[in-house]
Amino acid sequence: MSHRHLRVAPWQGDPQTVLMGPARGRSGPEVAAIRHGLDRLRRKGITTVVTPALSYYEAEPFFQAGFTLHERLHLLAKNLLEPEPEATPIRSSPPGLTISTARMWHRRRMLDVDQRAFQGFWQFDAVSLGEALNATPQYWARLAELDGATVGYAITGRAGDRGYLQRLAVVPEAQGKGVGSTLVNDAIDWLRHRRATLALVNTQEINTRAFDLYQRHGFVRQSEGLIVLRWST
Known about the structure:
This protein is of the alpha+beta class. Helices cover 28% and strands 35% of the residues.
């Protein structure tokens, strides 16, 4: 389903839940359009609608249409024109770690990592993985293998002079070993090579491990974060 200023997509294979957000490249939807969309979804048996991560400005018409706050996210930014601080403690790559380009036939392995790295609401399915890969005009998908086993992946996108670390996932048993740090370095190098000047990433406020990782790499928390909203019948 698509409206002029709305994008609606399946959510994690759940037939009663969908994702609704502003259409890419369009101005924000009006409250009436959101309510109309919700009415249509309700008649189709949809009981829950969630939004992607939105700024507070983008979220306002959704609040007015009856959505409520589901979760707050940190938004962090890194100026790619600034040199890396010499004193930044960044863990080096562990022995046996290889980083390679993730191809279409690797998506099942990426989803397996994602299911182990995230819980419930935040897990990707095939649709949301595809959306992350196609969210920007250019993307860089990377697979991390440790001693032959797939332990992580990252998706980085670029639109104009801005870069976006769309997804970073590392399986629990490989966390804290430098896998995530290596993937972040790889993403930053790619963005700089593509002449991006700013990199953005968001993470749950409760995900202190990811937040600390990004800060170690020079990302700075922005004063206004992002929010995810939810609507239920």
